[in-house]
Amino acid sequence: MIYKGDxxxxxxxxxxxxxxxxxxxxxxxxxxxxxxxxxxxTYLQNGKYSIDTVTKTVIISYLIxxxxxxxxxxxxxxxxxxxxxxxxxxxxxxxxxxxPTLELxxxxxxxxxxxxxxxxxxxxxxxxxxxxxxxGVRDKAMLELLYATGIRVTELISLNIEDIDLDNGLLICKxxxxxxxxxxxxxxxxxxxxxxxxxYRDKLNPKDGEKAxxxxxxxxxxxxxxxxxxxxxxxxxxxxxxxxxxxxxxxSFAVHLIENGADLQSLQEMLGHSDIxxxxxxxxxxxxxxxxxxxxxxxxx
Length: 301
Fold this sequence. Notes:
Distance between the termini: 70 Å
CATH class of the largest domain: Mainly Alpha
Strand content: under 5%
Low-confidence stretches: 1-5
CATH architecture of the largest domain: Orthogonal Bundle
CATH superfamily of the largest domain: Intergrase catalytic core
Radius of gyration: 23 Å
Strand order of the largest sheet: 1-2-3
Structural class: mainly alpha
CATH topology of the largest domain: hpI Integrase, Chain A
Number of helices: 12
Mean pLDDT: 86
Shape: globular
């Protein structure tokens, strides 16, 4: 039993063990929770607070502190969500008597519309890798797959060879929480996946037992940082005057499907959104673009 008044970091260790062993969270979410709570525990130590003396006022003071530090509304809202999870855990296990996060409202976050490429910009980007050598074919296959399926960069680099059904043109996307989804792959993308697997992957000298679909030049699994460098390189090469991240292709995939008549429920399933309200943002973007076209082209707009 942890006695009240113990070091805040001790509670963080217990919370961290709980997240690792019992909560089926993605690695990114888990690390985010721990990082947010660790910052709060440091704040408590600096202010000479102990966990059992934390009140609603202390939480609010901390949120104001984050604001003064220049944190965005979205970051502050995420921190509060992490603290809620932390104190819910402590209260449920009777480490504390009262949960100071109850009835605390999250700051309203204005949802910024994501950056989206035009279809021509996507074409320019995907035309950059030259499929004449192992690096060009690999890069071409990765970029085509990202746009063809709308998967996240973490999901892309986590793919294993067995997750691609070449015969049926399907991708099995495993997101770490046990909820796998199946996404169709277009014939154009499939062509380069097959080319990479059949003729080029082995030239990267895969390490013994390496199941990763996409490898770096050392024969190991491609990393997030490695892929970010690749997309940055081809963005500059394409001379596209926009900041393009792997998520930009995911957003573009979604908006282009909506433009061509895809329904929100099908899109939600392909993107792996748990809440359709997240998917609806793409419909909003499409409506804005339609309005822009109308205002620009209609003689009486």
